[in-house]
Amino acid sequence: MTASEAALTSSNLETVRKSARDYAFDWYLSALLAPRSCRQDLIALAALIGEIERTPLVVSDPALGEIRLQWWLDWLDGLEAGTRSGNPVADLAGEVILRRGLSKAMLAGLIEARGTELYAFAFETQETFEKFLERTNAAAMGLSAQILSGELRKDGAGPQDQALISVGRAYGIARQLTRLPQLAVRGRWGLYPDATGEIDASHLLDPMERKRADAVRDEAIQSAWTFLEDARRATGGRLTQPTRAGLPVAMVSNYLTALQKQADWLQAEIDIAPLVRVWTMWRARWTGRF
What we know:
Farnesyl Diphosphate Synthase; mainly alpha
């Protein structure tokens, strides 16, 4: 490798690291706390997750979001061809996917599921919403588990991963609650309807519509606490193989406590200090408890 190639590689690695840190901080911390042999691959996966997750939050036009997500789906389909995309996150993550034999079906499902957030009414029912949690954050944990275990599994999560799915569901609903303000400002409701029908996020300044939204949000927070208890029961309260891939779940209680204390969730996102995140994740990594 020439000096210029080495410099380019170093620059690309730093770009990927920055993307993971900026857009998927919990996943980034989880990667840093992983064994050295897995660390860089998990950072690449974190960067990929972050790039996909942020798409609905940075585009106002659903068509533009669909184009972005379709680019990722086309990239995923063409990985075996070995063509470089020029996108450092895509190129490094693609190498990890091929070398580790990660499930492309799970990745495609994750990308497609994020596409539902591009529209005003993403989830028809609470069951649809919970399936979304499994296809996004639970799937991301399944992919992380494949890297940590070195297991090649191309057809998704099996029965042995039910505990990890519970962990992913708990983390996913907490993260979705933190995304509500960013989705709402684009006229999208990031949760499910209430008993009377869809909630129109473009009319949340209307007192009645806001009251309905607040009620569903409060219900979702309580559901998140229940999901967290379910995850603790499913794992015995400890993150071991393969559920150690679910380390971000350690942040759930912090998120939910902050969400419950929010004065006006529509006006501002919650803010948890980076040092609190680092300490929480580090403690969970070394004790196994969450």
